[in-house]
Each structure stands twice: as C-alpha cells, then as structure tokens.
Amino acid sequence: MPLDAILRTDELWRRPHRAPDYENENRALARLMQALSEAPQSILQRLADTVLEVLNADSAGMSLLTDDGHHFYWAAIAGDWSPHLGGGTPRHFGPCGDVLDRDAPALFSRWEKRYPYLAEAVPLAEEGLLVPFHVGGKAVGTIWVIAHNAHRKFDAEDLRQLESMGRFASAAYRTVRLLDAQEASRAALESLERMRDSEHRFYQLLQAIPAAIYTTDASGKIDFYNEAAVDFAGRRPEIGDRWCVTWRLLNPDGSPLPHEACPMAVALKEGRPIRGAEAIAERPDGTQRWFAPYPTPLRDPSGRLTGAINMLVDITERKEAEQRQKLLLDELNHRVKNTLASVQSVVVQAAKSARNVDEFRHAVEGRILAMSRAHDQLSRRSWADAELHELLRACITPYLSKSNVVLHGESTIVAPRVGLMMCMAIHELATNAAKYGALSTSSGRVEIRWDVDRADARRMLRLHWLERDGPPVAPPERHGFGTRLLERGVQAELHGTTSIRFTPQGVECDIEVPLTRGE
C-alpha cells in the first residue's frame, strides 16, 4: 500500500482527547531524572517502561539508527512487544524511516499492509504513534507507542506527552552515547576533572532538559544552573549563592520560607532526597510560580557527600486549575441552593394564590420554565456575566412569533444574579400580558426598552415595559404572586425598585437596578 493509505496523523486532533495530567507526567520525569543519575546505562529501557505507563499503551519502545545509518534497531521495548527487543527495520523502508524522512510525528494504522515483514511481529499493531528525536540537530531515532486492538485510540494529548518524552529521549541517548564512548559511566564521573570535554557534554545534557535544574557543592553553594532555571526564577543567579536559584520563597500557605530552610537545604543538611514538597517561588517582578522540588544529595564512590542536584517542576497550571475547580464547585453549590430556594418560593406562592389545580400547575410550570431558560443562557457562559438582550430574548421566546414584541437597548453586560431576576420579572409581565393585556390580542404590542444611567457615582440599569393597543386595563382587585415578585423580589434580591402602572392604554412598568463596578 502507499504510505498515505496507512497514515492517520490528521485524526489525532479530531479525536476526543483527555485533559493533560501534568502532575503524573512531572512525577514520571522526576523518576527518569533520578534513574539517569543512578543507572544511566539502563535509562533507555526505563524510558520505554515509563512511556508505556504514562500513555497507557500496549507496547512502547525506542528505535535507534545504526552507526552506518542503514538500519534501525529496537534498543528498548516494553509491553507486549518486549520479546522483539533487539530487532529492527530497514532505514529505507519502514515506519521509522518514513518518520525521519518527514522529520515529523506520524500515526500509522495496520502498517504491515505497507511493510509486509512487520506481519511477523506479533501481536499486530492496530495503531502506531512515532515521534522523531534529535541530537545536535540530526534525527537519530524514534520513540513510539503501539495499540494492539481497536479499543485504544491515540489522540493529540498522547502526541504531546510522547513529544515531551522524546525530548528526554534525546538527552538520555546523548548520555548513553557519552558513557558508551568512555566505556564506563562511573569511570567517566570519577575523571570529570581530567576530561573537560566530557564535563562540557554533561552540562549540555542538563541544559537540554526543559525543567529547571541546578547543582550545589556540599555546603549548598550553587555551582551550576541551566537556562530553564533562569526562565523559572526570573533572574540569573550568582554562582556561589546558597541553596536556591529563586529570589524569594513562600510556603503553600503564603508565609515566608527562608532559603536556609528550603527543601534543597534540608536535603543537604540531612543527607536524604526530599519528595512530595511544594512551594511558591516569587520572582523579582512580583510574579509567583508554584513548583515541586526534587533535591537529591550526590555522593562519591566512598559515600562522601559531594553536593546535590535539584529539579524544580513548575506546577502553576495544575494549582490554578485546582483553584478554578474549587471556585466552580463553590459557585455551583451556591447556585443550586439559590435555585432550590427560588423554586420553593414559586411553589409556595403559587399554592397560596391559585384557585384550582390547573391554575397552580400552569403558574408553577411557567415560572420554572422561565428560570430554566435563564439558567440555560447563563450556563452557556459558565455563569459568567451575560448580555442582557440575549437573556431577555430567551425569556420571552414563546411570545416573539407574532412580531408584536420589540426589544431595544444598549449592549449591557450583567451579573448572573441580575440576569436571573430580570428574566423572572419579564416573564411575569409577559404572562400577565398574554392573559389580560396587549399579548392577548393580535393588535396588541409590547415594547421593552432599557439603558444604563452613568450620571451619578454608581451605574443604574433602567428597564421600561410598555403595553399598547390591547384591551382596556383596570387596576387588579388583588395583588398576586407576579406583582409581589416584581415589587418585592427586585428590591430584596437586587436592591432595586419597581413601579407598575395600570393605565387604560396598557400596563407600564419601570424597573431600576443598581449595578456594581464589576457589573
């Protein structure tokens, strides 16, 4: 088959994808960093195991170009394909070769239809997602995941995570190549002073990692930091500063955290790694970033403490997401309580004023439906401020078909509580007009006009309801729930005023509501 017949890359962005799990991803990268320092020769397999876990795939692995550039060999495999470790594909005819030729990620479906030799690699791949990684600007291999059945479909979030792992794969590959060239990682570390070139490449490795990393000597004096640490801290530290690259630290509760009590200082003083801590870094410009530190003491072959390395993982987005979630839950609880209270009031008042069951049912249904329409409009905006014209139009939708209702007013943004109450008030006026007033005849008409008065210190929303050309109007003998809602509800809920006039030409109503600065 031609290549385009098995490529499905464009589908990645059309498929539903899960929300990013930055916390799990950051923990995985932290474990890989620790594995890189403790057992660098096995880092490629650890990376394959981690990719399999983080992406919840059936198989995962790395394909590396041979030195002659003619083949790919599978240097690390995890999952169902692990028995194929050490196998590979030709450079000129295979999925990895096509990915390197395009120098772009690719999603393949049933690739054995194009590359028949892959039919021998069982279980067969239903889908394969491959990402190239580079060293020194040159593509040297791919990192990949496989789904062996149709139940697992890769998406754009899988691609983002695999590309993140691909950046680590580049650093890990360079480390392995460095250690292979020097024949022994421990020998290379013990002779760093005599091997300036190796030291330079080691620092390049740390510079390539996208997380903030710095090292100190045994006394806590900083002797190295990468550019990611500069970006995170918002400043360039001085070599010789103690404990931290950050300008100022805060505890999660906002209280000051002295540098000499920071996790890095504790790790050096107590000679143990620190895990599970969180803190806030304040930059010189006043901005703040949440982070999770991973300080780890470093020791020489004899066990003597020689310093420490620390990685600062930015978790600001996760913390902000948690805060937004809490605010939304609090707002939801508040709205539910208010809605239930409003429904209870509607039912109680309708029961008091209704003369029979049908009248009670119509009154309750109409008012709850009006609330529902207002809630629908506000929910579409996640209960943020809403446009008044859209809210009012939704509330009187049943009466717009005759083209005898006119809405006219400037674009006005109101808070949810204002919008909900105004919708309830307009519903009561429209219901009354449909029963007894201008909307009960084909010749009647209703005008709803509003504006915002900004003359005084505070803004005042003024809405005017006008009925004309309907039946003659006389003041009612008693005030029902609708009138009480207009007069008392607006005053109680919004601190506004309502004036209703039953003139012979038609009902007129003026509603004034103060708007706060935020509205």
Provide a short characterization of the protein structure.
The protein has 519 residues and is an alpha+beta fold. It contains 14 helices and 20 strands.
Radius of gyration, whole Å: 34 Å
Strand elements, count: 20
Number of helices: 14
Class derived from helix and strand content = alpha+beta
Through-space gap between termini: 61 Å
Helix share of residues? 25-40%
Strand content: 15-25%
Give the low-confidence spans.
none
What form results from the Cα inertia axes? Answer: elongated
Average pLDDT: 82
Largest sheet: 7 strands, antiparallel
Features:
seven-stranded antiparallel β-sheet, 519 residues, six-stranded antiparallel β-sheet, 20 strands, alpha+beta, 14 helices
Account of the 3D structure:
By secondary structure, the chain is of the alpha+beta class. The model has no long low-confidence stretch (mean pLDDT 82). The strands form four sheets. Strands 7, 8, 9, 10, 11, 12 and 13 form a seven-stranded antiparallel beta sheet that branches. It has helices at 3-6, 22-38, 43-55, 95-102, 156-181, 185-190, 196-208, 227-233, 263-270, 316-353, 357-380, 388-395, 416-435, 481-494, and strands at residues 59-65, 71-79, 88-90, 106-109, 127-135, 138-147, 212-217, 222-225, 248-250, 279-282, 288-293, 296-299, 305-314, 386-387, 405-409, 413-414, 445-453, 459-468, 497-503, 506-515. 34% of the residues are buried.
